[in-house]
Amino acid sequence: MTRMDDALRAGVAVYNVGEYHAAHDAWEDEWLGLADGTDDERLLHGLIQFTAAVYHARRGNWSGATGLAESAGEYLSGLPATSHGVDLDVVRDYLAALEADPERVERAAPPKLTVEGDAVTPRDLDFAAAALAAEIVAEEYDRYDESVVAAGIDYAREELGSAQTRFITFVMDFAADVEHRDIIYQRLSEHVERRQHKKRDVEGLFD
């Protein structure tokens, strides 16, 4: 699976659990690296503006929501019914309805996004996509230190292919378990500190 596909799945998963503002962070880095006007650039640009339209509508910013719904629809127009497995018809239909009546968001939840027909959530992600989801969640909330989560992801990558899974589990649970996320972060932070302390001790032997 490509980084583009991992980014798409991570953003869709975060969006589907109601993190409408955070979702765009999964797509932004990929989008910025794409040439203007390509299908992939239009796909990510349209999805970013779609989530922004939903976010503004839920906050009662009707003019912002309708403007973004219109431009998102323009970016996504002409793309196939599915792109990288993402169902775009449901997105385009909702954008048209939101543009006509932004207050609809108060009457019904926005549609779930699907990849290959599945409404992906963080629990459905493999490690690569879950790591991206963990990064954007940490970035979204001030109570999490992004450097701690980044270090945990690095240690988790070292575990891939080995019998060790402690950091892999922490990272994937941090991305997926909203209810217990603060506790998971605290434990991750403690284990990151222990690992870094051991590393400093070893390095001190050779100073």
TrEMBL record:
Signal peptide boundaries: none
Domain of life, source organism: Archaea
Molecular function GO labels: hydrolase activity
Pfam families for this protein: DUF309
Keyword list, A-Z: Hydrolase
The name this protein goes by in its record: Predicted metal-dependent hydrolase
Organism: Halogranum gelatinilyticum
